[in-house]
Amino acid sequence: MNKALKTIRDIVVWLIVVLAVGMMVFTVVSVSVFDRADRSLFGYKAFTVLSDSMSKTDFDAGDLVLIKEVDPATLKEGDIISYRSRDTESFGQTITHKIRRLTTDENGSPAFITYGTTTDTDDRLPVTYDQVLGKYQGKIPNIGSFFFFLKTTPGYILCILLPFLLLILMEGIRCIRLFRKYKAEQQAELNAEKEKIAQERAETQRMMQELLQMKQQMEQNRANTEAQKESDNASGK
Fold first, then answer.
1. What is the pLDDT of residues 6-47, one digit of tens each?
2. Which residue ranges form the domains of the chain, and what is each CATH number?
3. CA 90: distance to chain centroid?
4. CA 36, 37, 42 angle in degrees (round to 5)?
5. Which residues pair with 66 in a beta bridge?
């Protein structure tokens, strides 16, 4: 029974360790890479979807989309791209929309007309090559929402701080139990040593008593022998 409980406890501890370390790694990676146009991981960039403008066909708000950098000249109608918006209403935001058709901007530079499939409405400004961040490769559902939650104070407390505190608490309890067990074993050894000394002392006292009795018996025998000799000598006279 104790062995089974120890095994369960070890499994729980390791699960907490894996969870806490995993959350730490995810936090570091997400802060360093997610929603960073200048950062990539294994050649991919990751952006959190902020709206449902593509939810009808491809991904929803809160999903994490994976984008791979490509040559804009290779893009075609129907491709989904992420680009840095220059629209005054969404300036600087990363938008991931589908290419409706190829076009040129007011300067004659190659560009794309993009749109969100949910509303089927074209974006207000053409997207030029220099705005393109990459081509859509896939999505991880709801990870973006989790990332946003993790960056909040409740998310940090729930997903990172609490697992570490629980791990510290469990290890503290284990250390206290080990210390108590050690003290109990130490006390048991001390009691056993005291009992052994007491037994040896009792045995010594018993042997001393026997020696005294033997001595007294020998002295009594000697006295009897001398008295017998004196009696015999007196009778001989």
1. 777 777 777 777 777 777 777 777 766 677 777 777 888 999
2. 34-151 (2.10.109.10)
3. 39
4. 85
5. 46, 138
